[in-house]
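Figure 2 data, in text form.
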Amino acid sequence: MKRFVVIGGGAAGFFAAINAAERWPDLEVIILEGGRQVLQKVRISGGGRCNLTHACFDPRDLVSFYPRGQKELRGPFHRFMTGDTMAWFESRGVALKIEEDGRIFPASNRSQSIVDCLLDQADKAGVILQKSTRVNAVEKTENGFLLRTASESIPTDYLLVATGSNTAMWKAMEAIGHQVIPPVPSLFTFHITDERLAGLSGIAVPNASMRLGDNKLSSQGALLITHWGLSGPAVLKLSAWGARSLHAQAYQFSIVINWLSEPFESVLKTLQQTKQTQAKKQVGLRTVFTELPKRLYQRLLVAAGISEKDHWAQLSHRQLEALAVQLTQGVFRVQDKSTFKEEFVTAGGIALKEVNFKRFESKIHKHLFFAGEVLDIDALTGGFNFQNAWTGGYIVADSLEA
């Protein structure tokens, strides 16, 4: 009997092990987990609800949510993607729901539903689970691989490394010839100390746009003011796409914010028209732009050198221009970053050029596979990192030649 060992008791590892055991009944399947618990990231994701995947059903659209891995995942997503993930879990008794923003969760709103399903399916398929078994080294042998732990040596014909952002396992892969792209944080929020934001924690703008001061990267989406600076989808997108360049700048850089996602000229024209139609009214009485929270609008007035009690008729053309700049071209200095909630994601891992993505197999060593975040693949928040794990795990299981 041939053996398939999975290093890592996370989403990708369990999914590969279950599908391999079901697909190849004569194969011995073992999961080795270094800790005392498995599926920990599944348990905490989505605030404990488990954002399983995302309601994006076209592979060409789905890959656009991956700053690293776009090209490599296009083919795999044609084989196993969102709809297949949903069908897999639903056919095994997990009811799912799609929320308005496209995120997909178990109907129970409990990540435990996903954990229980994976544990139950692994048990039914005969997968052997060994916890507290840390692999210290991997050796290539004539017929497969030899895994060294503190207490034993485990031979295997097929090996899947699904350890996520695990520095020790990356070093073990480097020891047998693989290149590892150095990991840097992705999906983080911005620390900003600025009078325009002070005391406005909790205020959200539904559709802002921002770009790096050097104009190389931009993003658009909801923006949330926090007690430490800025968060929200627009920030997370920019942090993901700019992960490496922002790391190189030690997370000290400038961003330009357009709170309205409208051109400067259009906003200036609106302000000029308001001056004509609301001449006798105070500027700070209400915001001209309904999507902009009043408290933020009033703070931007001050930054433009305008008093809330000024009347529109009093404002000069220069003041109107200054306000339009604050609304559409405000420059903010970022001093640092922080991790987004508990969902720590890194950009980095096994170099993609060394992997055959038709099988998620190493191009250097036959029968060595990789799946999940151990690869230099990462995605935006919203269930996309899990979809990469499900797809990789499924294709690895289907690629074994048992």
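Caption note: The longest helix spans residues 384-399.
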